[in-house]
Design a protein that fits this description.
Helices cover 5% and strands 37% of the residues. With 95 residues, it is mostly beta strands. The protein starts with 6 loop residues before the first strand and ends with a helix.
């Protein structure tokens, strides 16, 4: 089952050709918006691109064409609590 927060994980998603995902975010005193994208292997061999945007900063975008990226998850990490999930691809929720 997918888990979102300082430790974010989900199992492999064969239908999307993705391996299992695991990433540990450092604790922070700032509000952060987190987006995880699937990108082509030519961009990242592991096929995951993580965007971590601190409140008030300009958001980074994946370095590939829009048609080649897929937003898998979008959640926030507030400094005082648990993650707030805004969006997760149905296959991520099922993983």
């Amino acid at each position: 089952m997918a888990q979102f927060g300082l430790e974010t994980t989900w199992d492999a998603i064969p239908v999307l050709g993705l391996d299992a995902f695991a990433h540990e975010f450092e604790e922070s005193g700032a509000y952060r918006s987190i987006k995880v994208y699937s990108v082509p292997e030519t961009v990242r061999p592991e096929r995951y691109f993580i965007v971590e945007t601190i409140s008030g900063e300009v958001e980074e975008v994946p370095p590939s064409l829009v048609r080649d990226t897929l937003l898998l998850a979008h959640f926030s990490l507030p400094p005082e609590g648990d993650a707030v999930l805004f969006y997760a691809h149905p296959e991520v929720l099922a993983a």
